[in-house]
Each structure stands twice: as C-alpha cells, then as structure tokens.
Amino acid sequence: MTAERTARKLIAVGSGKGGVGKSTLTANLAIALARVGRKVGLVDADIYGPSQPMILGNQGQKPVAREEKLEPVPSKYGVPVLSMGHLVEPGRAIAWRGPMAGGALTQLVDAHWGDTELLLVDLPPGTGDVQLTMLQKFKPAGAVLVSTPQDLALIDAARAGQLFDQAGVPVVGLVENMAGYACPHCGEVSDPFGKGGVEEAAGRLELPFLGRIPLDLAIREGGDSGTPPAATDDPLAQPFHDIAAKLDV
Ligand code: ADP
C-alpha cells in the first residue's frame, strides 16, 4: 500500500437490504461533497447490481487500464467513478462466486484515484463476501447506514451495523430515506413507510442521525436519467447537502 493510498479516506455506505436508496444516497452525497470542494470519488461495490453509471450519467464509458490498474471514469458532476457497470455490458447478469467478486472489488478500489481524498463506497446490500472483503482488506474509516423507516429495514440495518462493529469500522451516521411523501396533486404529506424510525434507532444505538430524505418521484427520475437532485437547484438537493455537511469525515 502506498503512502498516497493510506492518506485517502474510504467511507462505506451500507444498508441491511436492497432497494432502500443506498446507491441514490451515495451518488448524491458524493456530488454534494464535490460541490463544496472535496476531492471525492465513488466506488460502486455493488458488484452484482451496479447502478452508479446510470445514476451519474456515464453509462457506456469504459475505464482504461494503465500499468495494470484502472483509471476512474469521469462524470459530469466532478465525481470520478468505477463500477462493474463500466466493465460489463449493461443488463448482463454477473454470476460470480465470492472470491471473483472480491477480486473485482479490489480492482475498483485499488485504482488510479490520484488526488482523490475521499472515496465513497456503495456497498452491496446485506452482509456477504464482498462486504467482508471490503472491510477486512480496505478498512474504511467509517460507514454510513441508510434505511427506510420500516421496521424490517431497520432490523437489517442494525445487523449491517454489527458487521461494521466487528470489523472495527465506526458507523459515522444513519440516514432515513423515503420518509414523507408529498402528493403531487394535493400536496398532502403522508408516510407510506412510517416516519422517524431511523432517528429513534440512531438514538437507541447511540449513533449520529444525519438526516432524512423524502420519498419523491423526482429523486427516482433524477437517478434514472443521470441527473441526481444534489447536482441541481431543486429544493430536493437540500437534504443531501445537509447530510453531507453533517458527515464529519
Ligand atoms: P439500493 O442501492 O438500496 O438498492 P437505490 O438507490 O437503487 O437503492 O434505490 C432503489 C430505487 O428507489 C431506485 O429506483 C431509486 O431511484 C428509488 N429511490 C431511492 N430513494 C428514493 C427517494 N427518496 N424517493 C423516490 N425514489 C427513490
């Protein structure tokens, strides 16, 4: 490991289960940090279901290799990224056993990250091989956990938290996603997945609560079209900027 690598901070973004908005949060957080001048890069460690090329709008670009290491792929938001989605054809299933997935992850992290000082790592959901490789081999400086307010997602996030604890990686905060839905027709706010559960859990687990992100169609559309809200002047950018500001890394 070079001195340059040692100086770089890895922050893992994890969740107990899939579909809770981990990739969405990681991309928007990276953009928010880049907008305040941080040199931030993103590793999409969701080897089996990479979504960052779509979210960051650089799908179809291929990383080049130099001296047997990959060059991160630039995105228009000032956040370079490496993802399995840049290496395989879109939509192609990746059926690898743990060691191969671990090897792929190593290539993504151990790349030419240059002067990137902060590397956000979008982990796969759950507590499997790739997560273990990540924690044991690269020892992130901290982990952010995201969950919906639903109980099941919360219980799973607590389990993911234990994984980090065991590996000696401090959980630097919890984020509640999909909290509060404003009806686009009448404006009434409802809470399809409940509300406040993650903040309560953070209190119980004595972990910092970083903030909540509403359930909003524009967040989904922004992710699908490669224009994440944090990169826009939409009011929906604010929760991501607030979370980035609270993230003490
Ligand atoms: P994960 O990485 O946890 O699997 P994703 O970030 O891929 O989750 O999100 C799953 C889906 O939910 C995506 O289609 C994404 O655009 C959408 N989504 C995530 N967060 C929100 C939100 N706050 N409001 C609306 N849609 C969201």
From TrEMBL:
One of its GO terms (molecular function) is ATP binding. Pfam families: ParA. It comes from the Bacteria. SUPFAM superfamilies: P-loop containing nucleoside triphosphate hydrolases. Keywords: ATP-binding, Hydrolase, Iron, Iron-sulfur, Metal-binding, Nucleotide-binding. ATP binds at G16, K17, G18, G19, V20, G21, K22, S23. Belongs to the Mrp/NBP35 ATP-binding proteins family. Homodimer. Binds and transfers iron-sulfur (Fe-S) clusters to target apoproteins. Can hydrolyze ATP. This is Iron-sulfur cluster carrier protein.
